[in-house]
Amino acid sequence: MGVIRKTKSVEALLNEFNTSDEAISAKQLIEQLDSKFNKTTIYRVLDKLEEDGVLHSFLGKEGLKWYAKCNGCSSTKHKDVHPHFQCLKCGRVDCLPISMAIPNIPNRKVTVSQVLIQGICEKCCEDK
Questions:
Q1: In sequence order, what are the beta bridge partners of 107?
Q2: Domain CATH number, residue 43
Q3: pTM of the entire structure?
């Protein structure tokens, strides 16, 4: 990790991401850690972890911000550009293991691109 200190709040948040491969919404993290840390601390730590290249964020259904672990990123470059999938039945959100190229657009410099694909996940398809 870069410049972020290994505080109790950092360790608690990292533990949430190390126990699951799914993305976690800021709202879920606040609900899960509410008894230990206040909302401001959670948002501040999430911002720092994202700045350090430990996490990446994206917007999901209803404008909720979701976070997931980065893969090989650093504080200077987020290089794991990939789409995310959100199940419209159970709400699960995860990173898709599909690499994507950011398009070159004439006279523009693309710095961030987000793709959210929505549908029904494999577990919900099996539960029919």
A1: none
A2: 1.10.10.10
A3: 0.80
Query: What is the residue range of 12's domain?
Result: 8-126
pLDDT digit string (tens) for 29-75?
999 998 899 999 999 999 999 999 899 998 887 888 999 988 878 77
Residue 103 is classified by DSSP as P
Which residues on neighbouring strands pair with residue 93, listed in sequence order?
86
Q: Does any domain span residue 3?
A: no
Domains in the chain: how many in total? 1
The answer to whether 7 and 39 are in contact (CB under 8 A) is no
Q: Which residue has the tokens 């911000």?
A: 65
How far apart, in whole angstroms, are the C-alpha atoms of residue 33 and residue 16?
10
The answer to whether residue 77 sits within a structural domain is yes
Of 87, 125, 81, give the one whose Cα is nearest residue 100.
81
